Amino acid sequence: PITANQIAAGEVVERPASVIKELVENSIDARASKIEIEVGESVLSYLRVFDNGMGISKEDLPLAFQRHATSKITSINDLNQLLTLGFRGEALPSIASVSELEISSRTADSINGWKFRFSGGHLVAEEAVGMPVGTDIIVRNLFFNTPARKKHVKSESTELGHIKDILLRFALAYPEIAFKFTAASSRQWQTDGKGDYFYPLVLNFGEEIASKMLEVKGESADASIKIHGFLAPPAFSRTTRLQQIIFVNRRLVRSRLISSIVEKTLNTLLAINRYPIFCLFIEIKPEIIDVNVHPTKMEIRFSEEDLITKVIESAVKEQFFPQQ
Ligand code: ADP
Ligand code: MG
């Protein structure tokens, strides 16, 4: 029989890259300063995310695999003050329900860690293990028990491409975290976690563009909106929006509004009509954002569109046309 977790998994775990995204977000929420991501011979056979975050205690481990058990929201009001990436308590139980998942975790106040193994969501083994503080999750045989879902998985290179893309975005949004990515079938990269943007920009946009990008910065008078980012000179502009990367409160999003503000500002000033390459980090009071959308939906909406437009517009103008 299909379980509720497997149904939820249909929404949360669309493809191997969604597993990686959810696991890395949990590592970030656990305040890891080092996150290692490993993909095995095939994306379905082996995915691993290993962090040095706060870990999960033995008592909390089974809870983490119960639906809607999250340690991150204590009251419904917190939803408006959301500072963690996760809050639904759906990812781990969903992933476990459609794979063979092994989790080892240790908190600082314990002298050893605990390893739990699940198969199709059922706990099958539990043992004490020696390990550093942090969490190590291995997902094997993804979708082994949901053949319909498995059929939707695209070619190895397509799926690996999605994983790479998502990890490169994390490296850019969290330069203070040292990421290390290895994949059996492709070249690896790592960041040093020292907070510099340059190398993450190189990884995302290539050396030539990264070295020519200009920094933009700005904020609203009441400081409810702050923006920071890097724009490639218009000569590099493209015919698609594929190289526009937007983070809102360090969450990767899509926003037609924000894309079009940057585009309009640059295109109007330069009388061209192309898609500029940029990444933009927007910090915004959580109550102005509607986070309560579909779990995997990336399109974001704001309630203060005019203010956001003004802040971005003037930051871009100031950098590209300082005299005006
Ligand atoms: P959510 O992130 O929405 O809370 P998840 O299903 O992703 O739900 O995770 C469930 C819980 O497991 C989290 O609330 C957190 O307490 C714990 N957890 C998951 N991954 C980690 C990790 N890497 N380090 C520490 N705790 C974790
Ligand atoms: Mg989560």
Automatic annotation (TrEMBL):
Keywords, in A-Z order = DNA damage, DNA repair
Q: Which GO terms describe its molecular function?
A: ATP binding; ATP hydrolysis activity; ATP-dependent DNA damage sensor activity; mismatched DNA binding
* Segments forming domain DNA mismatch repair protein S5: 202-321
Which GO cellular component does the record give, naming just one? mismatch repair complex
Keyword DNA repair annotated: yes
Q: Which GO terms describe its biological process?
A: mismatch repair
Family membership:
Belongs to the DNA mismatch repair MutL/HexB family.
Q: Tell me, what does this protein do in biology?
A: This protein is involved in the repair of mismatches in DNA. It is required for dam-dependent methyl-directed DNA mismatch repair. May act as a 'molecular matchmaker', a protein that promotes the formation of a stable complex between two or more DNA-binding proteins in an ATP-dependent manner without itself being part of a final effector complex.
Please report the name of this protein according to its UniProt entry.
DNA mismatch repair protein MutL
Q: Which organism is it from?
A: Carboxydocella thermautotrophica
Q: Which gene encodes it?
A: mutL
